[in-house]
What does this fold into?
Amino acid sequence: MKDTKESHWFAAYTKSRNEKKVYERLIDEGYEAYLPLQKRLKQWSDRKKWIEEPLLRSYVFVKITERDYHNVLNISGLVCFVSFEGKAAPIPEKQIDVLRMLLGEQLEIEAIEENMKPGDLVDIQIGSMMGFSGELVRHKGKSKVIIQIDHVSHKLLVTLPANHIVKSHKK
It folds into this structure.
């Protein structure tokens, strides 16, 4: 395993449909990596099959030190790190944990809180996501909470029970 002293999570952008290969190469090189996968039922003309697809297309997460930065960039299939103002942008460990929890629990419970409306900021008060914040939205006619992953151009839509969220007092 590579030295993890002062290591941080980073989002790495991959070539199209290379997420699994890049993830395997990172693991083979001894880095701590995470590729959020989701099982989906795909239908072809002659059959249906459950397959695992990346939740965030063209992204893989890797926990590295500054010293490992250039070595990781040389991994085949990896294009670049997601950056902010020209510097690789670290992803908080807590947000990686959120991804793991969401995929581990396969949350999809429908509930609507009467005193909240789309656009309201909410705090999650109960359950494994307690302490996280998001925005209440309507998506395909259902109330859901958006969780933003820093520096990645994706947001996650999660359906939570109404008693798990309260209107946030933060602005």
The longest helix spans residues 93-105. Residues 35 and 60 are 5 Å apart (CA to CA). The longest strand covers residues 8-14.
